[in-house]
Amino acid sequence: MINAEYVLFAGVLGLIAIDLLRRRLSVSKDIIHWITLSILIAAFASEILFGNLNVNFFASIQYTQFINGFILFLSLIIYGFLFADSKEFDTLIDALFIFAVLGATLVVLASNFISLIISIEMISIASYGLVFFQKSNSRMEGAMKYVVVSFLSVIIMIFGVSLIFGGAGTLSFSSISNVNYLPFISGLALVIVGLAFKSTIVPFHMWAPDVYEASNSTITAFLSSVSKAAGLVAMMRVFFFALPVSSQFIEVIFVILAVATIFFASFLATVQDRIKRLLAYSSIAQAGFAFIGIALLNYIAVSAAVFYIFTFAVADALVFLAYKIFEDNKIIYKNDATRMFSTSKIATAGLFLGILSLAGVPPTIGFFGKLAIFVSLLSKGYIYLVLALFVIILFSTFYYLGLLREMEFSSKKVATKRNFKLKIKEALIIILIITLFTGAAFAVF
User: Fold this and answer.
1) Cβ of 377: how many Cβ atoms within 10 Å?
2) In angstroms, rounded to a whole number, what is the distance separating the alpha carbons of residues 135 and 115?
3) Please, is 148 exposed, middle or buried when counting C-beta atoms within 10 Å of its C-beta (0-12, 13-18, 19+)?
4) Contact by Cβ (8 Å): 307, 66
5) DSSP assignment of 98-134, as one string?
6) Are 241 and 173 in contact (CB under 8 A)?
7) Which residues share a beta bridge with 333?
């Protein structure tokens, strides 16, 4: 049996060795891009056919194959965009990308705090290079902010893990039972703070809009979907499997943080004039909805959170990848949206439908994701919170409409090169659009 994690690990080592040999022989770098694409396809096929790695350092759980399946699926789609632009970047990006994907899949399988932090840092270290892969002053600034925030978060998590070990005498999720609550809860709080940085939970979200905006939009799609999904799954592992008691006080605190994330991100999105920054704040708000399911600490809520992570990851990947086509054509501000339809009809449809999904409009997958979160809240008796969230969703719809109403669905002609590279990107966007409507079949609530 060949698991996806084995394929990715062997693939990244083999890719580095082949790249070194290629440079010595002065062979075209195209071969590296084709090998990377083959590795991702093989990993995705292995996850579908075999799934669920289970060794001592990592452990499989019920939703492992589902989460790793969509992580590999989205990574393959996102790399397709990089593959189309392969002339613009060095082969180092191929190894970094596979390394980041490997870290994301291992997060889902982590069975203790050490393996969890190692997996998270695998994503972070690779992401530094991905953010900086096209050299410019803005991307250097974005990469440095990402490095500083990630360095701070890992220090906080490591210190928290040391307190957890002092309070529980173990770092294995399954072995935590009798604990000394003062050091244990203090350590757990620090680990959650560190993961909140990764997951862009308010008030630890400050870095995300700047880094998302500074990055190439294809990399932003990876950070806002795959990387953020891994951070939220890590949070889920800590909440559901490492927290020995279910406390109403802890639940309320985390629900408040989730609602604050949704409210503040939605409010800040309304005052944005740059399209990418608006989408960045929207992505932060989506993390808040997923965090609600994680914070409720029961099976229904966790199942809803798993499905919601899938729904927003697909929609986020779709909107940022669609925006990449517009970014290449200097469509930056909301009033530039009038040129979207004439630039690419398919990308315009992808951005339009992705925004509708993020807003929770039926019959997109986003509607079913939000419905799952509402059902989990109602199961715990949070009726007034559901009403409050519904009002926030209506409020957030206004900034989505502010962008949508700028779009002109007319057939006027502009000078846009219809090359093979654009056709590849549009084909990938079509796949995500199909997923946006058929993904509800994967609902686990």
Assistant:
1) 22
2) 32
3) exposed
4) no
5) HHHHHHHHHHHHB-BHHHHHHHHHHHHHHHHHHHTSS
6) yes
7) 274
Q: How high does pLDDT run on average in the chain?
A: 80
Answer whether the bond into residue 203 is a cis peptide, omega within 30°.
Answer: yes
Model confidence band, residue 136 (pLDDT cutoffs 50, 70, 90):
low
Give, in order, the Cα–Cα distances in Å from 443 to each of 288, 370, 372.
Answer: 19, 11, 9
Question: With contact defined as beta carbons under 8 Å apart, do 222 and 130 qualify?
Answer: yes
Is the model's pTM score more than 0.90? Answer: no
Digit-coded pLDDT (tens) for 385-428: 888 888 888 877 776 776 666 666 555 555 455 577 888 888 99
Residue 264, class by beta-carbon neighbours within 10 Å (0-12 exposed, 13-18 middle, 19+ buried)? middle
Cα dihedral 225→438→286→247 (10° resolution): -100
- Span 94-119, average pLDDT: 88
CA 300 to CA 306: how far, in whole Å? 10
Question: pLDDT-based confidence at 213, cuts 50/70/90?
Answer: confident
Span between the terminal Cα atoms of the chain, in Å: 30
Instruction: Quickly list DSSP for 4-40.
Output: HHHHHHHHHHHHHHHHHHHHHHT--THHHHHHHHHHH
Q: Are 161 and 191 in contact (CB under 8 A)?
A: yes
Instruction: Give the pair of three-digit tokens for residue 14.
Output: 């083999």
Distance CA 352, CA 332 (A): 16
Q: Which of 135-139, 147-151, 361-365 has the lowest mean pLDDT?
A: 135-139
Q: Which of 287, 114, 253, 88 is nearest to 185 (CA)?
A: 253
Query: What is the chain's Cα-based Rg?
Result: 21
Mean pLDDT of all residues in 289-309? 81
Select from 106, 142, 166 the least CA-distant residue to 217: 142
Q: Domain-by-domain residue ranges, the chain?
A: 246-445
Which is nearest to 302 in space by CA: 258, 250, 241, 230? 241
CA of residue 23 relative to chain centroid, distance: 33
- Does the pLDDT value for residue 285 go beyond 50? yes
Write down the pLDDT at residue 53. 46
Lowest mean pLDDT among 36-40, 54-58, 178-182, 432-436: 54-58
HSE of 92, CA atoms in CB hemisphere, 13 A: 11
